[in-house]
Protein: Substrate-binding domain-containing protein
Amino acid sequence: MSGTISRRTFGMALAGVTMGLAACSTTAPTSNAPGGGSSSAAVTKSKIFMAPKFTGLAYFEVARKGGEQAAADYGIDFQYIGSDKAEATAQIATLTNAVPQKPNALVVSAIDGDAVAPALRNARQQGIKVVTYDADAAVDARDLFVNQLSYELAAKTMLDAALLNSPQGGLVAFISASPTAPNHTAHVKFMKQLIDNDAKYKVFKYVDTVQFAGDDATKSQELARNLMQAHPDLKVIISSSAVSAPAAEQAIIDAGKGGQVFATGVALPSSVRDFIKKGHSKAFMMWDPAELGYVATVVADQLVKGKIAGKEGESVDAGKAGKYTILKDGEIDYNKPLIFTADNIDKYSF
Structure:
């Protein structure tokens, strides 16, 4: 990460974030800032609402901090909205209720890319710019998508972390949030393809059926226990969920198999530090969610102010967070993977 957006600035432990944040509700807050119907030339201070899949999850709270930092740097009226329920209907209600508040832009992590698409299309019809981040919606329902990592790069990085845990390979199982989570679905698809076709990863085999935990720690632990019982030769559990990966590792330790079976995938370093330092696991991966939230908010601001049109090939200058190129279908790849090991995990405090 470049510039002054410090990884240490946004430190928080996974357990330290409660699900009931009073400042976050399904109904968007009111404001007298300029509305989404204003022309880009008339907007001098944009009003941007960030809507995560659901509030209270540590990962999204870190991304929120990045959005707040972008707001401070660029003079944005930034508001964080959402429900603490991990349900598509709750996010749809959040987005529907946001439109009458006339934000200039919505920055959204889609809990279900197809289910929330009508609400996003409606927002766009009202003149509101829509930028997705972390998890995309249907292409015609948003202007741009800021992807934390290209799906293939994310898959490779998770498999690289799996290799650090189990260099000899072995049987892999996958836990995802849901069958409709677009990023998780793509990650598993690419991981299976890489195991099948890339010589680097052919030491692995995989359980074809994917398990779904809904970003719930208790459910993730239950699934991890079931996987170990059903597959005695299981070596690695991989998850794109920052909840499921550490929860699966805890289940492995509780089963007395720490250092024999491994969980890896996406995790905040604060949630897996003890696992790695005690030798139960050797590697997890992530990116900087604060900087991702920063970039997504800057992208939305530049769309609103007409600094970018959202066309393929355009360059986006996110200041201290770097420069990026708009790719096909309006995708912007952040592409700064991090792998946490015993050698470097103490450098990260988020």
